Amino acid sequence: MKRNILACLACLLVLFSCQKLEDYNKNPNELTFVTALSLLNYSTYSLANDHRFNMTWKNLFCQHFSQPGISQSDPNLYELHPYQVNDFFKTSYHSILDLQEIIRLCAEDPDAQRVGGDPVNQVAQARILRAWKFQNMTDYWGDIPYSETLAGKLAPRYDTQESIYHDLLRELEEAAAQIRLDAPPLSADARYADGIYLGYVGGWKKFANSLTLRVAIRMADRDWPAAKVAIEKAFADGVFENNYDNAWYVFLLPPSNYQNPYAQFKNYIFVSKPLMDVLKGLEDPRIPKYAAPAKNTGDYEGLPYGLTLSNQSDRDNYSNLNETAAAPDGRVVLLDYVEVCFALAEAIERGAAIPGSAAEWYHKGIRASMEWWGVDPADIDVYLARTDVNYDTAPGTWKEKIGKQKWLALFMQGEQAWFEWRRLDFGILQPPPGLDYIATRYIYPDLEQILNKASYDEAVIRLPGGDKVTSKVWWDVN
């Protein structure tokens, strides 16, 4: 009996000696393999959600929206709570790091990542989204951490906006050239993981080239020769040709968590008086597409910018967002054909060799915007025939004509409308009551002054006027 017990113990010792301690510490629910496909799916949603959720500030800054005053901070007065800025800065870089991980995974083990399609195409998609995000960030703040962030440094230096812009042109050109249009078709799961083009890689190529137009036209006042070359090359390689090419993300209906963040805030957001006044002055048929009738009157009324209202009855005198704009399954646009048309109109005015005239592309931009919002074709024709709208008869310089209509068309894309107002200086916007300025940038997060002080200090020295909302970024020369 004793001998049998000893034999059993010996067998158990042999059995346990063949297994490592780590075998007992493994979490059976932990992922052992991460696909670039899953990261692309999450990154796309994250970018769209972050873009739309934080766009409330930007739609306020460009004076498309108005909100009654808020106690701790008031975006109507260009004030953002430090927590909001810190969180937005942090989450923006988290999104970029996710895109970096896609690139790393596909480079290190491309065969393992083929479940998401051609690994080279996945890398190109991540590079395009990364460029889109970086351009927005540098346009909010000016100089930002860029090259050393990509290199993984914990306290990265701030690259100049000029160097970032030139590198974005390179990145986008390379990404567009990198895309393999003849790659094998994606599986159904892989197609649906692409929340923008559902696996259509040709759309990604057009996205890269159309984003090049945005980058190039925004730097046109600083380096037109480089911008002109980039615009002509991108156009020749293929940009958006209609609204079907748009880069946009559709949120999902409840009970999904992937819902439009505006759906829960629609009763607190109002169309602004500056926007409504311009729309009414032009008898713009997009009014009922953008806004809802005021609850008390049934009329379309914009809320004065910077107004404080505590009584709900008073608020009901003004127009909230239209139900379509705030629908739970609403769509968020990252870049569209409308913006391409206006960029090409401007590029022609500046001397770029693009087929067509500035007037033709300007009119295409207005028509595309109205078609996107579901305006009747006959109403579009009437609008374009107005002497105060038609390119040949509308008042103002080409910058004022293009800028005004582009600002109107960029509704729900507030950051781009704000950037273009800063760049083209086409008027319309006025400081809110009690202020004598309109913000031209975000101030840096205060956490940067603690965690990355040396780099922050160096960036502020380069910033004309210092770290203020009234300072101007590199491309803002007027």
The overall number of domains is: 1
Number of helices: 21
Rg on CA atoms, Å: 25 Å
Distance between the termini: 97 Å
Tell me the β content.
Answer: under 5%
Number of strands: 6
Question: Percent of residues in helical segments?
Answer: 40-55%
Instruction: Identify the CATH class.
Output: Mainly Alpha
> Can you write the helix and strand succession as a string?
HHHHEHHEHEHHHHEEHHHEHHHHHHH
What overall geometry do the principal axes of the alpha carbons give?
globular
Helix-strand makeup class: mainly alpha
Q: What CATH architecture label applies?
A: Alpha Horseshoe
Quick description:
The chain has helices at residues 2-17, 21-24, 36-53, 55-61, 82-108, 119-141, 147-150, 161-178, 188-193, 201-218, 224-237, 273-281, 287-290, 312-315, 337-350, 358-372, 377-385, 398-409, 414-424, 448-451, 453-462; strands at 65-66, 144-145, 158-159, 247-250, 270-271, 331-335. It has 478 residues and is mostly helical.
